[in-house]
Amino acid sequence: MNKIISFVFCLLIFITSCTSSAQKIEDDRFVSHIVNLKTQKLKFYHKNETGTNFGNFKTLKQELLTKNQELVFAMNGGMYLKDGSPQGLFIENGITKQQIDTTKEAYGNFYLQPNGIFYLTKDQTGIVCKTDDFKPHPNITYATQSGPMLVIDGEIHPVFVNHSKNLHIRNGVGVLPDGTLLFAMSKDVITLYDFAEFFKSLGCQNALYLDGYVSRTYLPKKKWEQLDGNFGVIIGETKNLN
Asked: Would you say 203 and 157 are in contact if contact means Cβ atoms under 8 Å apart?
């Protein structure tokens, strides 16, 4: 009997903890979405079968419909060059399409050190790490490089300044304590510090900045449907229509 009572007590604590965590993520400053790779289907997209950049979520959504798939969630997945090609590492379906950029000193957020890489593995694990810590492996299915890191080993990037006057719309990704992925985009302009603090406050040990003023998110379940834009890599969650 004592074992049963103990089990029920632990179960109640677990349920309460999960509920509490979910409530904290409902921050009105952000459009946020959690992905469990064990139960949800996430991929990175760049070009269609004819070699043309998707560019935005509308084009990707239309393409997926021809394959009997529905776009559930999408977010721009990293910075890009003038021709629309990914800036830095890009791996798609296990194939390296763009090599890693190890440049240390150059202009722009991408090169604000340390920058980082967000990647997925065949065993359905999502990882955010510093570029210097990344090690190529055949188990990697998708990867995108961007910068700067927002949260590094549980701490806000050391160069970020609280109350900075550098304000932009921003989007990024972090790994929650349970291994699920947290995607977020600010609804209004925000500092890098406050954006990083959002991920840190939810327990993300590592989080990566994806981009700024070009940021877009498609998330119909939260009545947020930005189908416009023109960018490089797209991170998208899909489900089969049948």
From this structure: no
* Residue 41: Cβ-neighbour burial (10 angstroms; 0-12, 13-18, 19+): middle
Note the pTM of the prediction, 2 decimals: 0.89
Helices (H), 88-155: none
Q: Count, in order, helices (H) and strands (E) of the chain.
A: 3, 16
Q: What pLDDT digit, counting tens, does each position of 203-229 carry?
A: 999 999 999 989 999 999 999 999 999
What are the pLDDT digits (tens) for 143-198?
A: 999 999 999 999 999 999 999 999 999 999 999 999 999 999 999 999 999 999 99
Go through 205-242 and write b for each residue having 16 or more CB atoms within 10 A of its CB, e for each that does not. Answer: bbbbbbbbebbbbbbeeeeeebeebebbbbbbbbeeee
CA distance 72 to 238: 5
With a CB cutoff of 8 Å and minimum separation 6, the contacts of 147 are 79, 88, 109, 110, 111, 112, 113, 114, 115, 116, 131, 208, 209
Question: Which two structure tokens, joined as six digits, stand for 108?
Answer: 């722009």
The two structure tokens encoding residue 195: 């954006």
Gyration radius from the chain CA atoms: 18
pLDDT at 24 over 70: no
By the 8 A CB rule, do 150 and 156 touch? yes
Reading the block at residue 47, the tokens are 């070009």
Length of the chain: 242
Q: How many CA atoms lie within 13 A of 116 on its CB side?
A: 23
